[in-house]
């Protein structure tokens, strides 16, 4: 038997000596079959369970360290299950006597033969005795009993063989035990395999049961798919949907282009509206200026009217005085009144009438201007409704009582009126006997007597007067005439300046106007000359 001596790698000290018989445990460990001798190892550290799946799975293990240098050299199995390879009980062997041998034979016959053959060699003796006696055992026993030294040697051999047999028995026991373990493990695994196969079969059955309705559903789906009519219906619906989508796309593009056009139009109309707004504001300013002028003219006309009424009353008094004179004197002598005074009075009266006519023409122009304003505001209101409100407010400020339809009529009047208006002014001036507004200082010069003055009031017209004026001039009339002429000259200057900017009226247009203040009513019927 070989003996191994183990040494520590770190300190080279002897650890133990082993008989060279080993049992492999798991993959990386070997265990000595026979207990080692001269062990110089110590268990150290906590005890722990072995790694599962290996031979030491159920064992309790502890580290072994070198006594000298305390370096780890292996594991010690502290406890292990019964019948395990490393179980401690395996070392308790029992003596099992299977047969007993008789070692001594009673010496009864021929002791001489034994003594006579003493000189022979021991190797020849059994053969010779066997050949002589025919009994092998007797001869050998005789030789054993004859040599006690050989018997002791035999006993020693027997002892060593018994030790070998013990070792072999232990190894065989361990091998059989490991084989038994493996077999039991195989049995367990076979049992698990059977269980697994049974589970698999059960799962397969369940899968088959589940597959059956799925197959039925699949066949139904196939039947549905093979149904051509539903498919055709779906295709037709798809085509209709495609057509509708394309039509909607066309509509969308057309709507887009229309939107672009509308946006362009909107921008254009916005620009137009802006220009119209600026135009409206400028016209409003002009309207305010015209209103101011008209107010001034109205004030002047009131003053003139008042003076005119005074003159009228004076004329009436003179007529009464004249009538009384005639009644008193049936034969009227030649008039003592100087004719130049009469002419002066006539000139003053005609001048007042002319100024009244100019006021009426001024009012007419103002009305025309208002109609133009209204027309422009109507165009602005078309552009935007918001602007309409502003325009309405502007009309409320001015004069919104005239209907909007009159604005269109005034549009044409405007163009025609400008063609004849300057001549009209000149003719009117000639008719009134005025040379020029700049030469108002000479207004008192005598106009032709037969010329008539157009005046809105019929009762003060000279043609309606029954007789030519040959009444003596009342007192204090010359000074009043001078104030009248001064007023009229200023108002005529205003009229002429307005004529340059304002438009006239076409043909026979009648403008009826009420003064805005409501304090005075003045109706004027204007007939352009030459008609
Ligand atoms: Zn060591």
Keywords:
single chain, 531 residues, mainly alpha, three-stranded antiparallel beta sheet, two-stranded antiparallel ribbon, 9 helices, 60% helix, 8% strand, disordered C terminus, binds zinc ion, coiled coil
Structure ligands: zinc ion
Enumerate the strands of the largest sheet in spatial order, edge to edge or round the barrel. 5-6-7
Overall pLDDT level: 71
* β-strand number: 7
Rg estimate, integer Å = 79 Å
Straight-line N-to-C gap: 168 Å
Q: What is the molecular shape?
A: rod-shaped
What does this structure look like?
This protein has 531 residues and is mainly α. Among the domains are: 89 residues, no CATH class; 67 residues; 211 residues, no CATH class. Helix content is 60%, strand content 8%. It has nine helices and seven strands. The strands form three sheets. It has a three-stranded antiparallel sheet with strand order 5-6-7, with no helix packed on it. A hairpin with a 5-residue loop joins strand 6 and strand 7. Helix 2 packs antiparallel against helix 3. The longest helix is centred in the middle third of the chain and has 101 residues. The chain is rod-shaped and about 230 Å long. The relative contact order is 0.06. The C terminus is likely disordered. The site of zinc ion has 8 residues, from loops.
List the helices and strands and how they pair.
Elements: E1 3-7, E2 14-19, E3 22-25, E4 29-32, E5 41-49, E6 60-66, E7 72-79, H1 111-116, H2 124-133, H3 136-146, H4 148-226, H5 228-328, H6 339-383, H7 385-397, H8 405-432, H9 477-501
Antiparallel strand pairs: 1-2, 3-4, 5-6, 6-7
Helix pairs in contact: 2-3, 5-6, 5-9, 6-7, 6-8, 6-9
Bound molecules: zinc ion.
